[in-house]
Amino acid sequence: MEKPFYLFLTLILLSSCSDKKPAAAPEANTSKDTIVLQVSNNKDQIEGTYETQREGNEPDDCKISLEINKTKEGYSYFLKTKTRQLKGIANFTTEESGEKYLVLESIKWDEYNGDISHEDEENDSIANAEKPELEIPVGISASYVKDTLTIQNYGNSMNSYTKLSECGRKYIQLIKK
After folding, report:
1. pLDDT exceeds 90 at position 136
2. Fewest C-beta in 10 Å: which of 34, 77, 108, 136?
C-alpha cells in the first residue's frame, strides 16, 4: 500500500515542477534617440608618435622618440635616440591574459650577459670550462597600456642585459603625443 502512495506523491511533485512558466525577460527600453558608439580596435590606436618625458630635475639625456605607422603588411617603426636612428617592422600582439605588446624587430640589444647568478661558483666544472659566446638577442618588446609604451631597459644581478644603453632608465616610458 505504501508503494502506490509514494509513486502517486512523486508524480504530483514532478508534474507540479514542469508546469512552471519561464520568467519573461525584461524588454530593452531603448529610445530612438539613442546613439551607439563603436569602440575602435586597439591596433588602430597604436599608430602615432611616442616620446619619453623628462623625469624631475634630471637632464634630458634620455630623449627617445618612436613613430609607429600602419603599413599594408602591419606596422613599421622609426626609433630615434641621441646616438642612432633605426627603422623596421613592428609587431603588435595581445596575450591570452589581455596584455598588449609591441615588438620592435631587428634592434640588437646593446649588452647581454645572460644568467650570471652562478659565476662565483669556481668549483663547478662547467663554470671552469670555456663558456660559449652568448648570442645577443634581437628585438625589443614594449608593453602597451593606454597610449603608453613601456620598455624594461635593463635586467638585474641575476639576468644582466641592456637594450638601449643611451638611456640609463630601468623602465623607458614612451607616451603618445
Report:
1. yes
2. 34
Do the Cβ atoms of 164 and 172 come closer than 8 Å?
yes
In sequence order, which residues have a C-beta less than 8 Å from that of residue 92 and are 6 or more positions away? Answer: 42, 43, 46, 74, 75, 100, 101, 102, 144
- Whether 43 and 70 have beta carbons less than 8 Å apart is answered as no
Supply the DSSP symbol for 154: B
Q: Are strands 75-80 and 100-108 parallel, antiparallel or unpaired?
A: unpaired
CA distance 151 to 143: 7
* Single-letter amino acid, residue 9: L
Level-2 CATH architecture, domain 42-176: Beta Barrel (2.40)
- The C-alpha atoms of residue 97 and residue 93 are separated, in whole angstroms, by 11
pLDDT (tens digit, 9 = 90+) per residue, 48-99? 999 999 887 776 779 999 999 999 999 999 999 999 999 999 999 999 999 9
